[in-house]
């Protein structure tokens, strides 16, 4: 059972909570060969809207059910676009996913009849926001392709560059090259300007860049201009992001180097950054004894009032640790997570830990509460039913 919701899943749940009036119309999607879709777009002088989805993508399903069936959405897209939905892991979708560099789902592509990308966006969106994205795709001044053309021709003014980076970010596109190109035109003495700080704060990720080195060396100056909290938040994010990337790539040298940089940085939340990184590292390498030690420290110092973090820590312990002392600690986290946020996932974790500790009566009671919570919010609870069967076999 997944214990941590992705960013897109959280957005999806929030969007799904919005009430929609009963709808009768829906986007009319073409189901033809891609070359025929391109030909139709040319003939009708329309852009193509290509909905890039996969069968496992929850936000894609939410869009299909709640947004594509909205009357306003349907009328707008049917009028202005040749609409295509395509599973990017099957048939022609495989080739198109490679061609257009699809990195996240759902991705919304807006193309001309030659198959050139005019605009793009990624992630789920409520009806009006989805219509607004379509309007931007139709407006030459708002199209991503227009922004790219202007930037590539040398339009680097801070306000414009920031808007362009924002478009690339919202389209789940890499912009490291563009960011480097922009900063290559900036004097070091200008890096603390409002426009450059906005770009640094919103888009800079590279801990090895000269811009980050300058930010660290001039932390006090930036703090006086833009508040200490925002500067600390940015520095912390860059370190955390760098550590996470090193862990994901299994780059031990970079990971160790960055840990030392964080220790020597003097920022007041360095311990938390390092603990969070260590938890990721031990999880990645299945080092559960070390994970347990770090989890206990982290839960007691930094997660005691965070239901989701307590639940995630407790679940990892349940799945991978047999030490009774650690399991008792984790059951305490799970219990408190339920007290903070009484919901199915937290109850199920708590019941699971009670089962592993052999506390039969308590485990059954909480498992039954978890199932009732799942019924109320529409969650699947088959795993908890299986848990109840195992609980029943305890002595």
Commentary on this structure:
The protein has helices spanning 7-16, 34-44, 58-66, 71-80, 92-99, 127-138, 144-152, 158-170, 176-183, 194-203, 210-217, 219-226, 228-248, 252-265, 270-284, 288-301, 307-320, 324-340, 344-356, 360-377, 382-392, and strands spanning 29-30, 47-53, 81-87, 107-111, 117-122. With 395 residues, it is of the alpha/beta class. A five-stranded mixed sheet has the order 1-3-2-4-5, with helices on both faces. Helix 12 packs across helix 13. The longest helix is centred in the middle third of the chain and has 21 residues, at 228-248. Mean pLDDT is 93; it is low at 1-22.
Element layout with pairings:
Layout: H1 7-16, E1 29-30, H2 34-44, E2 47-53, H3 58-66, H4 71-80, E3 81-87, H5 92-99, E4 107-111, E5 117-122, H6 127-138, H7 144-152, H8 158-170, H9 176-183, H10 194-203, H11 210-217, H12 219-226, H13 228-248, H14 252-265, H15 270-284, H16 288-301, H17 307-320, H18 324-340, H19 344-356, H20 360-377, H21 382-392
Helix pairs in contact: 1-3, 4-6, 7-8, 8-10, 12-13, 13-14, 13-15, 14-15, 15-16, 16-17, 17-18, 17-19, 18-19, 19-20, 19-21, 20-21
